[in-house]
Amino acid sequence: MASNERILALVLAGGAGTRMAPLTEHRAKPALPYAGMYRLIDFPLSNCAHSGISDVWVLEQYQPYALGRHLAGGRPWDLDRTHGGLQVLFPHQGDGESGWHQGNADAIYRNRAAIAAFDPDVVVVLSADHVYKLDYRTVVDAHRAGRAGLTMVTTVVPLDHARRFGNVEVDRDGRVRRFLYKPDEPVSDIAATEVFVFDGARLLETVDELASRAGGDDAELEDFGDELIPHLVDRGEVREHRFSGYWRDVGTLESYWASHMDLLGHDPLLKLDDRSWPVRTTAETRPPARCHGSASIDDALLSPGCVVGGRVERSVLGPGVVVEEGAHVQDSVLLDGTVVEAGASVSGVICDMHVRIGGHARVGDQGGAGRARSDDDLVVLGEGVEVAGGTEMEPGARQSGPGTVGGQRA
């Protein structure tokens, strides 16, 4: 990146995350805990910090309280600066450019006056709920060399997954010739990762042009894939930057669970202990994890404050999780403060914070050790749920919290 280049990063953290319920009933999806001690938004913010991007704006909308607390003014990412640094932008009322964001393109449009005042040469637009490590400097450099209006970071995904994303066809020279937004029939196995590098002036010109067509200040532009990207593709202004590293969109319960399983094993797909590119976060100080009695740990991540006396296999335990003696946890993700009482068994389960699994309860598919799981296979328990002792919960069960699941079968 040129030393005098003005770069603005916009982290879009406004999605409601309805597909992730009940985990997103009381928090924005970017604030969702990940890998025990992190939050999803830590990944783009850490990437910005390591990439030398010091002007970072977070656009919030739904359930902002937990996310706002976590951001801590940008301190964990060295973005708490007198000049520049982290800023949080909210929807607001009071002028003709205000209002609720109807999508990521609409969020840009409704904040265009602030962006124009910053006068960026380059705008890096980032989703706040994807898991990956990427030096954005390499993308900015490629963008400048390619003289594009937009450079989108792409990656190869299984063809049957491509319909979940922006789907891309490219020429041999990297120019995007076709873009389809979440198509029923993908045209390739190349997906947009929702890392977009725009020419600053071209971005503002384009959103103004599209809004003018749609009716001016009252226009709603919705998401990038609806109009903005196809508009630039039609004009030959879009290039790709292929990314071959680990990348996951954790927008579904299945992908959230699967991404946690990717962290396990002797050679995990995503390494969190890379000292050259650490993931930074806001974390409460807790004592070290402790194992006692007949505890058995096989291929698991234990966060600070965990106390394990039972058996844990292929699972990720958040801070302060307790697995009592005689309890068995496998293929599961347990968030902060969850307790699994003696004799209970959980398999293929995602527990939100402060869930309690009563003694001798059976939760999830007890015979499915080590296999992939779909949304229909996973049991998901919301914050504060209590599962009464002896209860059986079948795969696919959902329970919002707080509240008690009792009796013998739920």
SSE inventory with pairings:
Layout: E1 7-13, E2 33-34, E3 38-39, H1 42-50, E4 55-60, H2 64-71, E5 85-89, H3 104-110, H4 112-118, E6 122-127, E7 130-132, H5 136-146, E8 150-156, E9 166-170, E10 176-181, E11 190-199, H6 200-214, H7 228-234, E12 238-242, E13 247-249, H8 253-261, E14 290-291, E15 296-302, E16 307-308, E17 311-317, E18 322-323, E19 328-330, E20 333-334, E21 339-340, E22 345-347, E23 349-351, E24 356-357, E25 362-364, E26 379-381, E27 385-387, E28 392-393, E29 398-399, E30 403-405
Parallel strand pairs: 1-4, 1-6, 4-5, 8-12, 14-16, 15-17, 16-18, 17-19, 17-20, 18-21, 19-22, 20-23, 21-24, 22-25, 23-26, 24-27, 25-28, 26-29, 27-30
Antiparallel strand pairs: 2-3, 6-11, 7-13, 8-11, 9-10
Helix pairs in contact: 3-6
Assess the beta-strand content as a share of residues. 25-35%
CATH homologous superfamily annotation of the largest domain: Spore Coat Polysaccharide Biosynthesis Protein SpsA, Chain A
Total DSSP helices = 8
Q: Level of helix content?
A: 10-25%
Q: How many DSSP E strands?
A: 30
- Predict the CATH topology of the largest domain: Spore Coat Polysaccharide Biosynthesis Protein SpsA, Chain A
> What's the CATH class label of the largest domain?
Alpha Beta
Radius of gyration: 22 Å
The structural domain count equals 2
> Which structural class best describes the helix and strand composition?
alpha/beta
Mean pLDDT over the full residue set: 90
Which term fits the overall shape?
elongated
Largest sheet: 10 strands, parallel
Task: Kindly report how far apart the N and C termini lie.
Answer: 57 Å
- Please identify, by name, the CATH architecture of the largest domain: Alpha-Beta Complex
Q: Which stretches are poorly predicted, pLDDT < 50 over at least 5 residues?
A: none
